[in-house]
Amino acid sequence: MPLDYLADEVYARLVRAGCVAADEEASDLLAAAPDEATLAKWVTRREHGEPLAWILGRIEFCGLSILVDERLYVPRLQSEELARRAAERLPRDGCAADLCTGVGAIAAYLGQMAPNATVVGTDLNLRAVRCARRNGVQAIVSELGSSLHSGAFDVVSVVAPYVPTGQLRLLPTDVQRFEPTLALDGGADGLTQLRRSVFDAQRLLHAGGWFLAEVGGVQDRMLEPVLRSAGFDNFLSWHDEDGDLRGVCAQLI
Fold first, then answer.
1. Which of 98, 53, 49, 42 shows the shortest CA–CA distance to 76?
2. pLDDT tens for each residue of 178-207
């Protein structure tokens, strides 16, 4: 039974809870809820700050419906540009490794765009690996790319934790309360895992292969010398429409 008659009430509650996109979230909740009782529980969970993706069990990423389990990092809209740039560099029958794959959003998109390619996702979190597999990703439990074959890949992508430890307290309250710290905390300067991923990518890529990583702040300036010392060139970064740094890529020479 359609629950549209509750739209105004749900919208008003989400606005009071501080949801920035209250109208869109209300529409998503109304469309997915099987009955009024479930809707009421879902709205209460959202009012308490629980991620909408956990409540609905899915999120849209690059036009794909991606399953998301509770207690797992929710893929961000800002990561879509990295996924698209990685897909542009992946040959139709090539090989890609998505490190720190989480629920497998980027890997699933790469597989969609290059169905004849081999795409592997790795993550230390077994729960995340299981969720990625439900999203159709060939995912394995591995620390970055330590168990993958050297020199076999055209593309290596990674969305590693990159928030400096001292800045975690500046994240939105609901993010701090609910989302896993291990997926956010990048160490003192935010680059602990990213530096390691550079050298994993150096081993995994063949000459001419591409490494793409999500970063923020001024981390492009900090990561560029690390990449160049590892044998990468053709370094470039990209920003969103607000001018905020969102990612870097470089080619192994």
1. 53
2. 999 999 999 999 999 999 999 999 999 999
